[in-house]
Amino acid sequence: MQSLPDWPEFIRTLFSPQGTFVVSLVVLGIGLLVGFLVWRAARQFMQEMGVPEAVEGTPFERTARSLGTSTVGIVSNLAALFVYIIAITVALNIAQLVQPEAYWTRFTAFLPNLFIAVFAIIIGLIAGDKAKLVVSERLRSVKLPEATVIPELVKYSIFSLAVLIALGQLGVATMALLILLAAYAFGLVFITGLALKDLLAASAAGIYLLLTEPYSIGDEVVIGDQRGIVQEVDMFVTRVENDGQEYIIPNQQVMQDGIVRVRD
Amino acid sequence: MNELRDLFDGLVADIDAVFLFSPSMSNFEALTEGDSTVVVVGPENTVDADHFVELPIDFTDLEGRVRFGIEGALNQELVEQGDEVVCVSGFMDGAANAIARIQTNDFSPSGVYDLFVNSRAEPGVVRDVFEVAVELGKKGQKGKPVGALFVVGDAGKVMNKSRPLSYNPFEKSHVHVGDPIVNVMLKEFSRLDGAFVISDAGKIVSAYRYLEPSAEGVDIPKGLGARHMAGGAITRDTNATAIVLSESDGLVRAFKGGELVLEIDPEEY
């Protein structure tokens, strides 16, 4: 892109003023053709990658539909538009219809970044909505009002990431935002880790107990102070019953205390 | 027609509650505007009723359905003993075409509601085992009728009151009754002798179990064989529920607390 300003100069030295004008028209024509080809190729490529199915049902796609287009249409049109703008600016530069120095050349160099930024925003919007759908689908069996917060959290995490990438592309100083995001991600990991500590330990022990079955349902066991007949072993707890009292023992405690199997 | 209308008015006069069996939304809304209690009975609460009794299995005969609905409502204290209720239900594949007036203490409770809801095992597990037994009763093993005995819930105690007849095919396996492959698997294993033991959460603990409860004071109808006697007796000694498929008459029976609580014909499902 840095060599772009030199090319018009070079062409102008080669051709007469009329010739330069013709060349600029040719460049414009080629640009339009390439734009159309890019539009068609992008469309075909995305269709073959199964993009329309993947974005089905996300709010972004629905908004696009209500505007009479689709995600695939928007992205391919954007790519074509990008090529058209480059072609037009190059042609204008060659023909020297506008002052070449100040504004237009820098605009051409800036264009790819702008394109990537818009693209990042679109992908971020779709990925965020999609992730929200997937997560809420998974959590459907959990009928807690608090559980609906998690999909939203996932959605906005991805949105903020997309915005950060876009701003970075446009050259905005994102250091402060990046630090904020890092703190947020760290907090999220740390807090969930802390919250799930016991469950993780129990399930790790539970997997061992389920796979090797050192004791099974019907065995009489002593675990810590509790003695009784094993009624149920699952991923997180072991249920031991004795005289109408059912002890529900976390599996990590089973591993810590050890198991005494009573045989008589 | 006036006489008929009088008869009908007499039927619905002074009632305490209306039981709707799988009603449509419009029927339900029209009736809730009246001042008597409306209880909805069905496999799912499709109309968002306040008073709802869930039907775990699809009773084909009207009496079974009504009995289950009323016992469920009594259990949830939606109606009281001695209340007069009117049941609106579908009869012979129709929708809401039969009306019956019943006093809630007209019949002695059979415990069929109790069987599904207040068993030690989870309600879904009891229902799954029931469905497996019905399926087995319908198709049999290679066209021949089979018998089977499932003991559900309180598995630890049941295991201690029984002994293995042979190696347990379910040892160190994690098969649950709701799993899709289970129907086929249990059908194959049903030619083995002995009982299946299933835990509260639905894990199949063992097959090939010989139950050794004391059969003292077990009162089951005469004419049923050793399988039913064993099933009935184990439920008296433990908090388990026994679901028995009879080889001779093909009926599925459920026992709880040493008593027969439910008897259905698989062919009607």
As residue ranges, the low-confidence spans of chain A are none
β-sheet strand percentage of chain B = 15-25%
Radius of gyration of chain B equals 21 Å
Order of helices and strands of chain A: HHHHHHHHHEEEEHE
How are helices and strands ordered from N to C of chain B? HEHEEHEEHHEHEHEEHEEE
Oligomer: heterodimer
How many separate domains of chain B? 2
- Give the biggest sheet of chain B: 7 strands, mixed
Mean of all residue-level pLDDT scores of chain A: 82
Distance between the termini of chain B: 38 Å
Q: Which CATH architecture of the largest domain in chain B is right?
A: 3-Layer(aba) Sandwich
CATH topology of the largest domain in chain B: YojJ-like (1
Average pLDDT of chain B works out at 83
Could you say which structural class the secondary elements and strand pairing of chain B correspond to?
Answer: alpha/beta
Q: Give the radius of gyration of chain A.
A: 32 Å
Helix vs. strand class of chain A: alpha+beta
Give the overall shape of chain A: elongated
Overall CATH class of the largest domain in chain B: Alpha Beta
The proportion of strand residues of chain A reads 5-15%
Question: CATH homologous superfamily of the largest domain in chain B - what is it?
Answer: DNA integrity scanning protein, DisA, N-terminal domain
Question: How many discrete domains of chain A?
Answer: 3
Structural write-up:
The complex is a heterodimer of chains A (264) and B (269). Chain A is built from 10 helices and 5 strands. A 5-stranded antiparallel sheet of chain A has the order 4-3-2-1-5. Chain A is of the alpha+beta class and 264 residues long. The radius of gyration of chain A is 32 Å and the shape is elongated. Chain A folds into 3 domains: 101 residues, no CATH class; 80 residues, Helix Hairpins, CATH 1.10.287; 46 residues, SH3 type barrels (Roll). Chain B is an alpha/beta fold and 269 residues long. In chain B, strands 7-9-8-6-10-11-12 form a 7-stranded mixed sheet, with helices on both faces. Chain B starts with a helix and ends in a 5-residue tail after the last strand. The model of chain B has no long low-confidence stretch (mean pLDDT 83). Chains A and B meet through strand 2 of A and helix 6 of B.
